[in-house]
Amino acid sequence: MEHLPLLFLVTFVAAIAASAPPGLLNVNAAKVGVEKGKRKGVSFSLGIAVTVAAQAYIAVRIAKFLNRNPEVVNWLMKAAVVLFAVLTVFFFVKGYKKAHKAIAIKENTAQNIFLKGLFLAWLNFLQIPFYSWLNTVLHNRNLMNFEIADEICFIIAAAFGTFLVMYSYVFYFNKLETKTNWFSKNSNYVLGALMLVLLCITTIRIFYS
Q1: Which residues contact 44 (CB under 8 A, 6 or more apart)?
Q2: Across the chain, how many H-helices and E-strands are there?
Q3: Residues in CB range of 161: below 8 A, 6 or more apart
Q4: pLDDT for 131-172, tens place per residue?
Q5: CA–CA distance, 197 with 194 (Å, rounded to integer)
Q6: What's the whole-model pTM score?
Q7: What are 25-82's pLDDT values in tens digits?
Q8: Which of 121, 124, 135 is nearest to 56 (CA)?
Q9: 102 with 41: CB under 8 angstroms?
């Protein structure tokens, strides 16, 4: 139990780092806050946080399975090479074709805004492999024991960290906008470069294993 505060802190910081760069979710959270009001922006952010909690739960189950079945990891690494290659091309092509645009949100009720955030967050499918990887790293550092308390702590920290970022975009977008303008315009290229780096790292790991 002594490790739980550190587990929460590390997961919380990782969630902030993963969701802070301008992207589909936080840009739309800011858009809702500006166009629909701060209260609905918070409702939208809560929807995102609930989905992240569900994704973190799935990630825990995946990491737990991989920990008990290490022979599967090598096969998944080979599959990851293909996935990273496809994502690299996808993000570079997307960045070349057009700049990032927030999805139009027409619903006016707080309930619909919450459901919109819930649904939109599922489009960010990279959250699951990210939190699964984080789970594995924390387990190797003896910070994640796959016990109920550990899993609940991890899930809450991931959801809370993500919500804090969305909340910040809703309330402080005008101040953040000038500082993140470059990243907003080039986010697809940055993501493409990240996928290329992951592709190279994964390929090297397979070669040397």
Answers
A1: 28, 29, 32, 33, 105, 113, 114, 116, 117, 166, 170
A2: 7, 0
A3: 11, 12, 13, 14, 15, 16, 19
A4: 888 888 888 888 888 789 999 999 999 999 999 999 988 887
A5: 5
A6: 0.69
A7: 887 888 888 778 888 889 999 999 999 999 999 989 888 887 777 666 566 666 766 7
A8: 135
A9: no
